[in-house]
Write a structure and sequence with these properties.
Layout: H1 13-26, H2 32-44, H3 48-53, H4 62-74, H5 79-83, E1 85-88, E2 91-94, H6 107-119, E3 126-130, H7 136-144, E4 149-154, H8 157-169, E5 176-180, E6 191-196, H9 203-206, H10 211-214, H11 230-238, E7 243-252, H12 258-267, E8 273-277, E9 283-289
Parallel strand pairs: 3-4, 3-6, 4-5, 6-7
Antiparallel strand pairs: 1-2, 7-9, 8-9
Helix pairs in contact: 1-2, 2-4, 6-7
Length: 290
């Protein structure tokens, strides 16, 4: 294990950033310089521009906090959990304990949903996010569509609380409602857009996940059943009563699950099923245009 650097109050900010980046790189934490910047920003309260232009200033009282952050990162705690925030689709969101840390890969789900809503010319869409987690997807959609109203559902009380915090943080609380429930069981009415990033890891794969995921993300947000497809089987049946005519469904999937999820939906009578790839060229979203 890489040794945690010792930071002193009389060390210049620029030197502290270089030493922290070197330690992170040696531990395989990449992009090391970017992670070092984020941790230094959080420890000092300074922004990226201030760190660049005031690099000769001393760490001062932030040295102890930076050392704490460095130790946590070098033992495998994700940066977003250390600093308590994550940037998702241009929004600065709170990352709460026991709630899934939003991933950049999920932004393709938001992009796909917005594209399909625009293609269909929908106005004032009603949006449903099943397994809302931190509220990242719901906040991104509502922020991008000021005419929309959204409902987020999650079984986890921590996730429901995190979504409410993030809706308020983004100025979206008046257009978003959070319900604690088991998927769609408590819902009635119909929606123009239904989205979900459900748990899709199989039981057998859980133990082999990267430690940063396995040790810090909640099992409830990861475990998709024996084969990772349990939520999609439920969706194939339940979403029909919740989707308006001409509505859209967008579901995140594991990168090997595209064909299987598409087949599940087609077998249940859904048409207009397609698969979208993420920026790495991997299957990431199943879209359904009714």
């Amino acid at each position: 294990m890489t040794e945690t650097p010792n930071f002193a109050a009389d060390e210049p900010l620029s030197a502290a950033r270089r030493r922290l980046a070197a330690a992170l790189s040696a531990a395989g934490k990449e992009p090391a310089d970017l992670e070092a910047r984020f941790l230094l920003e959080a420890a000092t309260g300074l922004g990226a521009l201030a760190l660049l232009t005031r690099g000769d200033e001393l760490l001062g009282g932030a040295a102890k906090q930076l050392q704490n952050f460095a130790a946590r990162r070098l033992t495998g705690e994700p940066v977003n959990r250390i600093i308590g925030t994550a940037n998702f689709f241009g929004l600065d969101l709170v990352v709460a304990p026991k709630v899934l840390d939003p991933r950049a890969d999920t932004e393709i789900l938001v992009e796909t949903a917005l594209e399909l809503l625009a293609r269909k010319g929908m106005t004032k869409p009603r949006i449903l996010d099943l397994g809302v987690g931190s509220g990242a997807i719901l906040c991104a959609l509502l922020d991008s569509r000021p005419d929309a109203f959204g409902v987020g559902v999650d079984l986890s009380p921590e996730a429901c609380a995190a979504t409410q915090i993030n809706l308020a943080r983004c100025g979206l609380a008046a257009r978003g409602k959070v319900i604690r429930g088991d998927w769609a069981a408590a819902l009635a009415g119909r929606f123009d857009l239904i989205v979900s990033n459900p748990p899709y890891i199989s039981h057998a794969e859980l133990g082999g996940l990267d430690r940063e995921v396995r040790d810090h993300d909640p099992v409830l947000a990861l475990d998709g059943g024996a084969d990772g497809l349990a939520p999609y089987r439920l969706f194939a049946v339940e979403l029909k009563r919740l989707l308006r005519p001409e509505g859209v469904v967008c579901l995140e999937i594991g990168w090997t699950q595209g064909a299987e999820v598409a087949a599940l939906l087609s077998a249940a009578g859904w048409s207009g099923v397609s698969c979208r790839r993420d920026r790495a060229g991997r299957d990431r979203v199943i879209a359904v245009e009714s």
